[in-house]
Amino acid sequence: MSLIEVKKCSKEYKTGKITILANNNITFSIEKGQLVVILGASGAGKSTLLNILGGMDTCTSGDVIVNGNKITNYSKNELTNYRRKDVGFVFQFYNLIPNLTAKENVELAAEIVPNAMEASEALEAVGLGERMNNFPAQLSGGEQQRVAIARAIAKNPAILLCDEPTGALDYQTGKNILRILQEMSTKKGSTVIIVTHNAAIASIANQVIHIHDGQVKKLEKNDHPANISEIEW
Ligand SMILES: Nc1ncnc2c1ncn2[C@@H]1O[C@H](COP(=O)(O)OP(=O)(O)OP(=O)(O)O)[C@@H](O)[C@H]1O
């Protein structure tokens, strides 16, 4: 059984008389421990799909099954629990709380789940063991993104969802972030899903889901994902 199965999922947004079909009959599956890239141009429907996978939004029709559970049938409370326990989020602009230190930012997220990792352990895993008492403003963009990753992985989530995680970073720092995310999948067995419009990132994935106009244009499996040092953009 796949960890994630998306079956004929569609999402409509209605504003007044206009209906936008942001996701149109999307079907794919993701195995545990895979690194998956969802690739597409701006407006293709990637974030909508990621939000549905993360339980922040629901499909208008179709099913999403995670670990054998149909999350499309979940109540609000069940979805809250799912977001808390099963999913870690990494966003383009980090979303750290400015008046909390790196360690406190991670602790805050870890507090809402049982069996969370120690904040210091999560920060050490992303190479920030020495900086955990710094506030976000005292850290570079790449370091702040590493705090955001530590915050996400401290919950020991089954799925790590990353929306343009390198979008605000320079080339080398972006690569360092991708290296950490790839190692989460290859060394820790986490299932990592990265949304991006950057096609160069695709070769590091076990699977690439090409999204165009709300539809899956192509599903590409890759038995030999590239190492981060081999990719360029
Ligand atoms: N809450 C909403 N209400 C109405 N329309 C929406 C909403 N969210 C997204 N859309 C529309 O759905 C389509 C897909 O948007 P989505 O944000 O999923 O694309 P994307 O591929 O993530 O784009 P980007 O890379 O620019 O973030 C767009 O036409 C967008 O305007």
UniProtKB/TrEMBL annotation:
Coiled coil: none annotated. Pfam families: ABC_tran. InterPro entries: AAA+_ATPase, ABC_transporter-like_ATP-bd, ABC_transporter-like_CS, MacB-like_ATP-bd, P-loop_NTPase. Residues 4-231 form the ABC transporter domain. The keyword Transport applies. PANTHER family: ABC TRANSPORTER ATP-BINDING PROTEIN MG467-RELATED (PTHR42798:SF2), LIPOPROTEIN-RELEASING SYSTEM ATP-BINDING PROTEIN LOLD (PTHR42798). Belongs to the ABC transporter superfamily. This is ABC transporter ATP-binding protein.
